[in-house]
């Protein structure tokens, strides 16, 4: 049981990120001073939405230069903080060197932040943004889980540097976090394991998110011939921010926490969008055949390997989110609301256009 003083500042790493933007807004709304760790505190374009939120909420935000791979670079930002939110970690399928671009920043960055927490006497709790990717790699792993349902007890054992390296990076980073946490008694570790994050971005002009890329492709005609029928979990970014906040300030928060509002699929998402926008925008209406994905997938996207297609297409995704509901007081918004709000954002920004 850990009590966090809301009059003390909190550190948020990766503060310009998609998830962090909503988390920081939630913190500022509750009158909590934010220490925002960013690569460049002088980049007005990337910080504008955070400064605007600070002004709107009349709550201070302070920016600190930091680097995931630089030892000691979080010392100043962490000073005086009882609570640390470590959200910074790369999420992309567009990489050239998985070790350098995914694994190293995730693992070394986590090690850097948590070892810094050991040296800052004020820190009482660290919230790590992990992922359901640290629980499973492919839908075949879901089928192999006890009862065919993912829980916090399951760990990803099938990802590698060669197969789904993003999932591998999240698994290694979370294991490193637990290793460091178990080696000390000053602070406790609470881990957030979200599924695929959807929902509107606060910083749409500068946001980089794989889910935003996916949604754009569903709306701009890239996928008009169909989507891969792959089972996925989905959580609204606004709900995810609330989960982080609750994990930080609820005394009894503990362990790993699956944060996922819906057991869904890319095909269900396409149907939701088609029902609302299908007459005006080139959203997909059907699933692509598995054989076709096996044939063309690798040439379209290097992450869509034949192994990936075999292990995911036409297979369901199921996870148990009861721990988050019972222990973090989560109440997830409807999937349709998430998808409409997301798509309306793309329309307003002219990222997707009429047929």
Strand content: 5-15%
Q: What is the ordering of alpha helices and beta strands?
A: EHEHEHEHEHHEEHEHEEHHHHH
CATH superfamily: NAD(P)-binding Rossmann-like Domain
How many domains make up the 3D coordinates? 1
Report the CATH architecture.
3-Layer(aba) Sandwich
Shape: globular
* Number of extended strands: 10
Profile the largest sheet: 7 strands, parallel
The level 1 CATH classification is Alpha Beta
Average predicted confidence as pLDDT: 92
* Rg of Cα set: 20 Å
Which residues sit in consecutive blocks of at least 5 with pLDDT less than 50?
A: none
Main sheet strand line-up? 3-2-1-4-5-6-9
Share of helical residues = 40-55%
Q: How far from one another are the termini? A: 55 Å
Topology-level CATH name: Rossmann fold
Describe the structure.
The protein has 355 residues and is of the alpha/beta class. The chain has one domain (10-348): 3-Layer(aba) Sandwich (Rossmann fold), CATH 3.40.50.720. 42% of the residues lie in helices and 14% in strands. The chain contains 13 helices and 10 strands. The protein has a 7-stranded parallel beta sheet with strand order 3-2-1-4-5-6-9, sandwiched between helices. It has a 3-stranded mixed beta sheet with strand order 7-8-10. The longest helix has 22 residues, at 98-119. It is globular and about 55 Å long. The mean pLDDT is 92.
